[in-house]
Amino acid sequence: MGVHDAFKAFQGRVNADIEAVREARRRRDIFKSAFGAEDDVLEVIASGSLARGTQKDPIHDVDLIIVYDASKHTDWGQPGESARSALDYVRGRVNTLLGATNGTYDQVVRLARWRNHAVKCFLDDPDEEAGFTVDAMPALRVGKHLLIPEALSDDWVECDPESLIAYRFRCSSAC
Fold it and tell me: pLDDT digits over 71-81, tens only?
């Protein structure tokens, strides 16, 4: 058995159940639809293990990148308070669009807290050990890369998660 076949066999054993994957995608797609309709959003990109097809059981979260129009957020991307400001903005939009008591698009998020790079949105009870979250990360597109906020350093960092997703798909069919 070659490396590719061995990895494929291993992945088949640790992958999440198809019903769990479908539910995770459904929850992710609520965010994609809600944010995709926003005037200042250029695109919403699924990222992380679910997007790469490498999700393990159990699925605790899904990751999204919300790419904003830099011309509508001219202070973003600069060192200083703009990283925290972007995270605060996303947290506010999550509450407005998807808050459990007052969401205008859907009412699915019980609590939203920002972390270093993303807003962690709790769809299940935040105290539940296996509670499900959606991590929504704001970004600006700069050429072929993304700039993402880093609250701990009060700066923005360049990253390229799309290349990881594309690599996984290229590798799974060609490796």
Answer: 999 999 999 99
